[in-house]
Amino acid sequence: MTVWDLVRAALRRWTVLVAGAVATLGLMYSTTLDDGVFWSRTQVVFLAPPSTDYPNSLRTTSEDLIITAGVVAKSISGPDAVTKYASPDATLVGEGVRDGWSIRLPDTGGQWAPHFAEQVLYVEVVAATADQAATRQGEIIAQIAEELDRLQRDAGVAPVNDITVTVAPESTVVHQVKGSRARSVGMAGVLGAAATFAVIAVLEARGRRPATRGHRATPRPRRSAPPAPVPAPRTAP
């Protein structure tokens, strides 16, 4: 079917064309109503207790701090398996999440081998409004501090040796993430037009298919077997 054949078919089936145009316009308009989502990401840094040898807690890194951060994250997130990404910079918005949160210990080992090098937890929040994102982030940070304190009290750690946490950045920064309206409207129009003309092409192909009627084969008449020869009567001599 050529382009002109498709155009003539669309004019013949104008009802399908009008219905497809109305549905496409509705889809294009619905894409303009999406205001996107609000996303926030902050780092909760685990700090070792200061000492004479290591007075700067921010510069102190140890395996114990990294393990403690991982335990706290697992306690809050639950026993479900953690999705592994090729880069620690992957975000919830990139995954397609529009409402949710996550706590991750950054893994810089890539897809093949885990490697945890920082005592930092990435806290990400995605919400419908900026206020919801900020409130949810504050609640998760408070929960991290409470869980860390509970673990240390259960382990009998003296308060002078407590691991503490700090937030970087301290102020909550919420970003609005949304796509291009021009692109979404254009793509919706292309998809709607393609679907409409595809339906018209299918209807045209079905309309041109010749109708076949079932028929029965006429049985051939059977030939009757020839009569058996009758022997001639014998006469007495």
Describe the structure.
It is built from 6 helices and 5 strands, in the order H-H-E-H-H-E-E-H-E-E-H. Strands 1, 2, 3, 4 and 5 form a 5-stranded antiparallel β-sheet that branches. It has helices at 3-12, 14-31, 63-77, 92-95, 130-154, 181-208, and strands at 37-47, 100-104, 120-127, 164-168, 174-177. The model has no long low-confidence stretch (mean pLDDT 79). Helices cover 42% and strands 14% of the residues. With 237 residues, the protein is of the alpha+beta class.
Can you summarize the main beta sheet? 5 strands, antiparallel
Into which percentage range does the β-strand content fall? 5-15%
Number of strands: 5
Counting helices, strands and paired strands, the structural category is: alpha+beta
What is the H/E order?
Answer: HHEHHEEHEEH
Helix content: 40-55%
Spans of at least 5 consecutive residues whose pLDDT stays below 50 are none
First-last Cα distance: 94 Å
| Coarse morphology | elongated
Helical region count? 6
In round numbers, the mean pLDDT is 79
Whole-number radius of gyration?
Answer: 38 Å
